[in-house]
């Protein structure tokens, strides 16, 4: 199916072509007609990278009345980085239509945000805390909102934003469209939907589609002392990607070591102030930096096209974290490569992670044979013999 068959106007189709979109993704094919033709609320299950921003942005742009200088759509996101990305994506899709979009989030002076809202903004994208701050100050008026969107709703609930979300929702009109996008559907999401949504249409992207299909996945078994040397073998000239570390300290140390060895690398972690994080991400997005060494929290929601590689320098803690990491590459029909470094004793855990994530990960040719003194077979065998058959008591 083409975008032309979804019911979009010619002006919007021109903007879509300028973006280089050829065919709608699954979430776009389902959501766009529902938003254009119906009045129902929508729940969409979709990972980052499946095109969900365009799925709700294109119909909203069509519905915005530029002559009305009030907020007509409010989009809540869990992080500052995602708020900026969503705002930028909507701006790139508006074409010549005079739709004003602005992102509000904490960690930045509130004065410029107040002035932008006073001038007139049609679409506000923001984090719950800062949006609620503007409501309490009386610097944002949501009485004209037609669309209320929760992006990555499950992460917002995990981060404890449920009370803020409900407070913001109470400041919007009763008659509005509510859209909720979430990678998973925990009980809290369903309860929120039941409380505020009216017979919502549910659009579920299948599990197979949530797992990136265009990512070649492999793992490298390596001793701790040789891990950096193996990493350098991965960093070819065409490398443009993210290296995930477990700690902030590791991101700093690894990025500094890479720079000393002549690589274009920068760290991205939660110890950096918001302005520094934005500058770092901007340089990476513009390819002035080729390697981003990041923690999961700092990289959450990053949406950058054409990333060639994702490297798990530290093993992910669970299947969700693994899928989130490798989903940074292999996007929009382009192949990517995900490499996970495993130190002695981590292979068994990683196999469980891959199995639960529903992915197949092959052993890389870069892997080394683990010396006998680093193996844990005897210890694991003794553990299973003593405890494996017993039922745990709580």
Describe the structure in your own words.
With 394 residues, this protein is α/β, with parallel strands linked by helices. The protein folds into two domains: 3-209, P-loop containing nucleotide triphosphate hydrolases (Rossmann fold, 3-Layer(aba) Sandwich); 211-374, Rossmann fold (3-Layer(aba) Sandwich), CATH 3.40.50. The chain contains 17 helices and 14 strands. The protein has helices at 10-19, 26-37, 52-63, 80-93, 110-119, 128-137, 153-158, 162-169, 187-196, 207-210, 227-234, 248-260, 274-285, 296-299, 319-326, 347-357, 377-388, and strands at 42-45, 73-76, 101-104, 123-126, 147-150, 177-182, 201-204, 215-221, 241-244, 265-268, 291-294, 309-312, 336-342, 362-363. The strands form two sheets. Strands 3-4-2-5-6-1-7 form a seven-stranded parallel β-sheet, sandwiched between helices. A seven-stranded parallel β-sheet has the order 10-11-9-12-13-8-14. β12 (309-312), α15 and β13 (336-342) form a beta-alpha-beta unit. α6 crosses α8 (162-169). The N and C termini lie far apart (54 Å).
Write the layout of secondary structure elements.
Blueprint: H1 10-19, H2 26-37, E1 42-45, H3 52-63, E2 73-76, H4 80-93, E3 101-104, H5 110-119, E4 123-126, H6 128-137, E5 147-150, H7 153-158, H8 162-169, E6 177-182, H9 187-196, E7 201-204, H10 207-210, E8 215-221, H11 227-234, E9 241-244, H12 248-260, E10 265-268, H13 274-285, E11 291-294, H14 296-299, E12 309-312, H15 319-326, E13 336-342, H16 347-357, E14 362-363, H17 377-388
Parallel strand pairs: 1-6, 1-7, 2-4, 2-5, 3-4, 5-6, 8-13, 8-14, 9-11, 9-12, 10-11, 12-13
């Amino acid at each position: 199916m083409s975008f032309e068959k979804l019911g979009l106007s010619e002006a919007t189709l021109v903007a879509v072509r300028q973006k280089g979109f050829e065919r709608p993704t699954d979430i776009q094919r389902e959501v766009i007609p529902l938003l254009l033709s119906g009045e129902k609320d929508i729940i969409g299950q979709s990972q980052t990278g499946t095109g969900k921003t365009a799925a709700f942005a294109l119909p909203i742009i069509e519905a915005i009345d530029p002559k009305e200088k009030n907020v007509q759509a409010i989009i809540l996101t869990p992080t500052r980085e995602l708020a900026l990305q969503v705002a930028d994506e909507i701006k790139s899709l508006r074409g010549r239509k005079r739709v004003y979009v602005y992102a509000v989030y904490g960690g930045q002076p509130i004065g410029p945000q107040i002035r932008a809202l006073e001038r007139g903004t049609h679409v506000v994208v923001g984090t719950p805390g800062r949006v609620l701050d503007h409501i309490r100050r009386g610097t944002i008026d949501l009485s004209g909102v037609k669309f209320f969107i929760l992006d990555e709703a499950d992460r917002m609930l995990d981060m404890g934003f449920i009370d803020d979300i409900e407070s913001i929702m109470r400041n919007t009109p009763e008659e509005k469209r509510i859209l909720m996008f979430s990678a998973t559907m925990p009980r809290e999401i369903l309860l929120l939907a039941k409380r505020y949504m009216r017979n919502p249409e549910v659009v579920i992207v299948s599990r197979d589609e949530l797992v990136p299909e265009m990512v070649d996945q492999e793992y490298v078994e390596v001793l701790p002392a040789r891990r950096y040397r193996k990493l350098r073998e991965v960093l070819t000239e065409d490398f443009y990607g993210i290296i995930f570390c477990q700690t902030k300290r590791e991101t700093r140390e690894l990025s500094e070591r890479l720079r000393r060895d002549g690589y274009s690398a920068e760290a991205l972690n939660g110890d950096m102030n918001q302005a520094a994080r934005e500058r770092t991400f901007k340089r990476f997005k513009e390819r002035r930096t080729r390697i981003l060494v990041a923690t999961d929290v700092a990289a959450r929601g990053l949406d950058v096209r054409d990333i060639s590689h994702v490297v798990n320098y530290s093993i992910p803690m669970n299947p969700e974290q693994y899928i989130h990491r490798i989903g940074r590459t292999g996007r929009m029909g382009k192949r990517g490569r995900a490499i996970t470094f495993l130190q002695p004793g981590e292979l068994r855990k990683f196999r469980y992670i891959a199995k639960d994530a529903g992915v197949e990960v092959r052993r890389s040719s870069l892997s080394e044979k683990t010396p006998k003194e680093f193996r844990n077979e005897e210890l694991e065998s003794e553990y299973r013999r003593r405890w494996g058959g017993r039922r745990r008591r709580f």
